[in-house]
Amino acid sequence: MALKSTIFKADLQIADMDRQYYDGHMLTIARHPSETDERMMVRIMAFVLHASEALVFGKGLSADDEPDLWLKDLTGAIDLWIEVGQPDEKRILKACGRSNQVIIYSYSSMSNIWWNQIASKVDRAKNLSVFNLPAATSQALAKLAQRNMQLQCTIQDAQVWINGEGESLLIDLQTLKIPADTTR
Q1: pLDDT tens-digit map of 156-172
Q2: What are residue 14's DSSP bridge partners?
C-alpha cells in the first residue's frame, strides 16, 4: 500500500519591506512521504520570499514537469519557476526555456559540490538565479515544522527573519548566481 502525503497547515504573516508586500497567507502543504521537514520548510521559505496571491505550489516530488513553486500569468505562461534542492542541469535548462525567471534555492552540506559541478553547464542561462541556504540554517528551519504552524516572516535588506514556536531564525542566503542585469 502506498504511503499518503502528510498535510501541514501554515499561517504566514509576511512583512516584505524590500518589495513593500504585507499580507497573510493560509497555506496547506502536502509533504510527500519521501520529503523531509527540512525540504518542506525550504519550500515555505521560498514562498515567503516570492509571496503573491498567484504563487502556487507545484505537485512536488511526484511531478517531473512542474517546479516546487510557480507563478503563471493570465495566459498560462510561466513567469517564475522555483526549484528547491539540487536539480540537474538538464532540468534547470529546460525550466529556463519554459519560464521568464528561474530561481533555485539549494540547501545541504553538499550544495557547494553540486554547484561546482553544475555552474559552468548552466552559465549560459540568463534568466537563472541560484541561492544557497547554509546547512545549519536549513536544519534550524526544519525544527520549526509542525502540522499547524504560525510563522511571522520579515524581509529587509535581503535578510529573512522567521519567527515561530518561540524561536527566531535569521536566514541570510548566499548568492551563487544572478542575472547580470539584476540585483537581489
Answers
A1: 998 999 999 889 999 98
A2: 23, 153
> Residue 79 — left, alpha, or beta (φ > 0 → left; ψ -120 to 50 → alpha)?
alpha
Distance between CA atoms of residues 10 and 151, nearest Å: 7
Q: Which residues contact 104 (CB under 8 A, 6 or more apart)?
A: 82, 83, 84, 85, 87, 92, 128, 129, 130, 131
Over the stretch 74-120, which tens digit does the pLDDT of each residue have?
Answer: 999 999 999 999 999 999 999 999 999 999 999 988 999 999 999 99
Cβ(171)–Cβ(133) under 8 Å? yes
Give Cα 73 distance to the centre of its chain: 19
Q: How confident is the model at residue 27 (pLDDT cuts 50, 70, 90)?
A: very high
Q: What is the pTM of this model?
A: 0.93
d(CA 43, CA 49): 10
**Type of residue at 141:** L
Please list, in sequence order, all residues whose beta carbon lies within 8 angstroms of the beta carbon of residue 115, skipping any fewer than 6 positions away: 106, 130, 132, 176
Q: Which three cell numbers stand for residue 137?
A: 540554517
